[in-house]
Amino acid sequence: MRKLVIILLAAFVMAGCSDIRFDKMPGLYQDLIPVEIQGKYVYYSKDFRSKLLDTMLLNISHNEITIDGSYGETKLSIHQNFKLNKIGDLYVVGTQDKVLKSLWNLFVIEPTSKGFNFYSVHEKSIKSNPENKLDAYFPFFDVPFTYEPIPAEPMVIGDGGGGQPGTPNMLRYYSMSDEQFKLYFENELKNKDYIPFKKDSKEKSKKSK
Prior knowledge:
Low-confidence stretches: 1-8, 13-17, 48-53, 125-130, 148-167
Number of strands: 13
Oligomer: single chain
Largest sheet: 10 strands, antiparallel
Distance between the termini: 39 Å
């Protein structure tokens, strides 16, 4: 599953979208990136051989995240490329959905003593699990739309799942409260599918001097 999270991080880096959409972000709005998570971080993959994603370097400032990897360097600015909220000890990163601009794809930063863990809110059934965990935690809505930027992404409603001529495609999105999101994170995400980013050792040595 970590391979999937890495792929979704790459999608975030490239301003792509997750497979899950929300109508709002939980937590308190952050005008700037807090000092707590600013700094330089590194991730070295031990279980994913792709040269494209084997190493990631992050430099987080008060208003920008610079991500450097085998695919090149990408800079993401707060408010322009993503929004940031704080809920408890967590930070929620939101990127605008490519299909419906009013919806959000969510990622979670969990600070740790060594750096932070990066989570993506994604569909569990991607990895051959038929149960959709999110339906148990959040109210959801299915809305019809006709624009399909990604072939076969929307669910087609019909008898037997095959669809019928003239039946609209449906897109599902979720609503939430802060308490619902906290419960979902604790039960379904925490300590499971994440990417551990560690503080750059060179950065630590500079601060200790």
